[in-house]
Design a protein that fits this description.
heterodimer; A: mainly alpha; two-stranded antiparallel sheet; 15 helices; B: mainly alpha
Chain lengths: 358, 328
């Protein structure tokens, strides 16, 4: 009844091309933005920001990045953790070498560095495909983590081998370091997420995104109709690396504050982000958000229910989490290989007809 | 003979032995991949799970004891008996076959005809699930596994080489046993695949699902069988690795090490898995020996992957893999 195109007449090309053509979607989007920017920062406290909002925002960026590579361009990557480490260490080096430059520029530059590294490891994708590529990206994961652990230049020769984020400000408000207000961290990450999501959404709608999807669906056929596989794959690796690098930089600088390559950016992180996009939905920006929210909330929820309410020991609850995550992934793949995003799409289709039967 | 060369030879031999163990895990991958086209990421966790089960049965642990204690507030820990190794291995094999049936019935029967990448992700989910179940069933602390395999330095080799070069090679008895068992296992698998009715059915399914169906081979049965055989290979690998370094979570990570082995050897070739395993084993040990000290050590973490990556750029189908021909 309220969710349909009928009666929503477009009178210019600009209106016809807008991101959300359906009025209801558009207003929902404005409402979410209003909520995220103008309501949440005033009511959040430390616990909510650190346990839920920050991980959600940061992993959403990483999930969008991986979704572009895996969901849109069909190149499976198990190296996300390693690429996030590149972002984190690039950001750290930039922050310590050029302390007078704004951190916003550092984070963006860290994304750029990661994009470059990602392209470098993506080059073999022109020759190898599928599982072989997935394993090749594992090389990136292990090599990069080893590099950051073993070459002291990357962690500025600190005795512990850790990197610590110094205090940096935006508009005279601290956004990194120990004295940061919860809302400032939240806003800083939110701005980056909004930027990334907008860029990703519009890239995937345009010709670049269509080329990626053509390569994903059948690369030889795509080549025949004139898609350059070199450009398409490399651009997917580059854009994906940019987002993943930003996520890594934020994870280290804003969320963790101190990081060590093996602990914070290990292979488990790669799988975590991969699971987010499987559960959320491959090839969907909304799916990246849904998957990130799901896998950030699930452990918090389980911990509260199992440990808090039932009084189980924490290690048991942690093992249960493994079982539930594994089981959910299998269930999702069997019932709905396209993830939460597909459920949302089906719901929207139903809503379009409602309340009429046909 | 110069000292460096003698050390190098010892490293080479140890690398060969380590390579055999990698090959053992890789073998399980190849079996499942050939028969069902599933790239089974859970192979390493299966090895962990089987080793955990074996220890649990031998020690007479109560399955899910920890969980039961947490829910009902009881204090049970074990049945108080010790099962001999041989019986425990048989029982564990039974558990692995049961697991194969469950996996086939509950997961992969519903995913027939899906894209390979979906199947791959399902096995990642399976790996997580199994890991959680294994930990809850038997507890997650590091366990010692001893099924009576010989361990420690082999004195015969030590003395002989001392007589030859004036320096005794350190080679673990367990590695020698592992090599022998791996050789036996491969021979048995080849005989099984070539000369038995079930083995022929397995190869037929690997060749062409539909043609196999049309001559009356039950796909379901073959798949359960293949998962059971892979479970058996996982059990053998689990016993070897478990005896060597204790039954612990890192056991499941050796599965990752098997991936570059597979890439070198090709996903579809049993000899490939073995040769690939040996190359990786020797390569990473020699690299660590020769180059490692110069770049800060611990190169074993990534050497295998980078080697495979470079190799793949020049030969995408691996050493023994079938050539990939693509048509639109």
């Amino acid at each position: 009844m309220f969710y349909r195109e009928a009666g929503d007449f477009k009178t210019s090309y600009k209106e016809d091309n807008q991101t959300f053509p359906i009025k209801f979607d558009r207003y929902r989007y404005y409402a979410v933005m209003f909520l995220a920017f103008a309501v949440v920062p005033f009511i959040v406290n430390d616990y909510w920001v650190n346990a839920i909002f920050l991980p959600f925002l940061i992993y959403s960026i990483a999930a969008i990045g991986l979704n572009i590579l895996t969901g849109y361009c069909g190149q499976v990557s198990l190296g996300t953790g390693g690429f996030m480490a590149v972002g984190a260490y690039a950001c750290y080096k930039l922050m310590t070498v050029f302390p007078e430059v704004s951190i916003i520029i550092h984070v963006l530059l860290a994304g750029g560095v990661t994009a470059f590294v990602c392209i470098l490891f993506g080059l073999p994708s022109l020759r190898i495909k599928g599982f072989y590529l997935a394993v090749a990206t594992l090389a990136a994961q292990f090599f990069l983590v080893w590099l950051f652990n073993r070459v002291p230049w990357f962690y500025n020769y600190s005795a512990s081998g850790q990197i610590n984020s110094p205090e940096r400000t935006v508009l005279d408000i601290a956004v990194t370091g120990p004295n940061t207000d919860a809302w400032a961290k939240y806003m800083f990450c939110l701005v980056f997420l909004t930027f990334c999501a907008l860029v990703a959404r519009n890239l995937t709608r345009g010709s670049v995104g269509r080329k990626w999807m053509a390569i994903r669906d059948m690369d030889i056929a795509a080549e025949i109709i004139g898609v350059n596989p070199l450009k398409a794959k490399i651009s997917a690796f580059g854009v994906s690396g940019f987002f993943v690098g930003i996520a890594g930089a934020l994870l280290f600088a804003v969320y963790l504050g101190a990081a060590e390559a093996g602990d914070s950016f290990g292979i488990t992180k790669s799988f975590l982000v991969l699971f987010m996009i499987i559960i959320g939905g491959l090839g969907s920006i909304f799916g990246s958000f849904a998957g990130a929210a799901f896998l950030v909330l699930l452990p918090v929820l389980l911990k509260n229910v199992l440990v808090g309410t039932l009084g189980w020991p924490t290690d048991l609850a942690a093992h249960f989490e493994f079982i539930i995550v594994g089981g959910l992934i299998i269930t999702f793949l069997i019932l709905e290989p396209h993830g939460l995003a597909q459920l949302w799409r089906v719901a929207k289709e139903k809503l379009r007809l409602w309340p009429f039967p046909h | 003979m110069p000292e460096q060369l003698i050390f190098g030879m010892e490293v080479f031999l140890n690398g060969l032995m380590a390579g055999v163990l990698y090959a053992l895990v890789a073998l399980g991958f190849v079996l499942i991949y050939k028969a069902s086209g599933i790239f089974n990421y859970a192979q390493g966790v299966m090895a962990l799970f089987s080793a955990l089960t074996l220890v649990g049965i031998m020690e007479g642990q109560v399955p899910f004891g920890h969980l039961i204690n947490a829910i009902f507030g009881t204090e049970i820990h074990g049945f108080g008996w010790h099962v001999p190794a041989f019986a425990a291995i048989l029982l564990t094999m039974g558990v692995m076959i049961l697991l194969a049936v469950i996996v086939q019935k509950c997961v992969f029967r519903h995913l027939v005809g899906q894209e390979p990448i979906i199947l791959f992700m399902a096995t990642i989910g399976l790996a997580y699930f199994l890991e959680g179940v294994g930990d809850i069933m038997w507890g997650s602390e590091i366990k010692k596994l001893d099924v009576g395999l010989p361990q420690g330095i082999n004195t015969l080799i030590d003395e002989t080489t001392f007589g030859w070069f004036g320096y005794g090679f350190f080679i673990d008895n367990l590695d020698i046993v592992a090599t022998v068992i791996a050789a036996l296992l491969v021979t048995a698998l080849v005989i099984f695949a070539q000369y038995t009715k079930q083995g022929r059915a397995m190869r037929a399914v690997a060749d062409d699902h539909q043609a196999a169906l049309s001559v009356g081979i039950s796909l379901n049965f073959v798949w359960v069988m293949v998962w059971s055989v892979a479970g058996f290979v996982a059990l053998v690998a689990g016993i070897m690795w478990g005896t060597k370094s204790g039954v612990q979570f890192s056991l499941s990570l050796i599965a990752l090490k098997a991936l570059p082995v597979l890439m070198l050897g090709g996903f579809t070739s049993i000899p490939g898995a073995i040769v690939g395993g040996l190359i990786i084993g020797v390569g990473e040990k020699l690299f660590e020996f020769a180059i490692g000290p110069m770049v800060g050590g611990a190169t074993e973490n990534w050497f295998a992957y980078v080697l495979a990556l470079i190799f793949l750029v020049f030969r995408p189908q691996g050493l023994f893999g079938e050539k990939i021909i693509e048509r639109v």
